[in-house]
TrEMBL record:
PROSITE patterns: PROKAR_LIPOPROTEIN. It holds the Pfam family DUF3035. It comes from Ruegeria meonggei. InterPro entries: DUF3035. This is Beta-barrel assembly machine subunit BamF.
Amino acid sequence: MRLPRSIFAVTLAFAAAGCSNIGLRHLEAPGPGPDEFAVMPVKPLTQPQDYGFLPAPSPGGANLTDPNPKADAVVALGGNAAALTPGNAIPSSDSALVSASSRYGVTANTRQVVDTEDAEFRRRQGRLTQLRLFKVDRYSQVYRRQALDASKQTQAARRAGIETPSAPPADE
């Protein structure tokens, strides 16, 4: 009498575990160590040209050595960091780029549309993608047909006469 109950209990536990939807990614931190991505390096300290004309301290304000990754990326790509402040219009030097990138229209709810389409795609993949007995990352298994093979794309570009940079061997 105890054996059928235990089999029923184990079957019920597996059924309940299979109903949970934890997503395709099952990633865990390797341990309780520090998060190396939480630390941002600061800019080097510089000495002012004249100590008599220092700006007044502003509590809670920005420091010259504070990191500003968005502005740094814009400057590194040849843009103007002043254009990032709210209320500034698009600079005239970027108007051609903005009009070319929005020539087919700009959808305001792109993220919601992609999220809905992806949820429908995962639903069509079947319920078996959610059943796990072990901690497995199923993302690459589900999306393998939609992934590009870098070596095949490089070879196709080379056959078409497009110059491509060197790439590591395909077996590495």
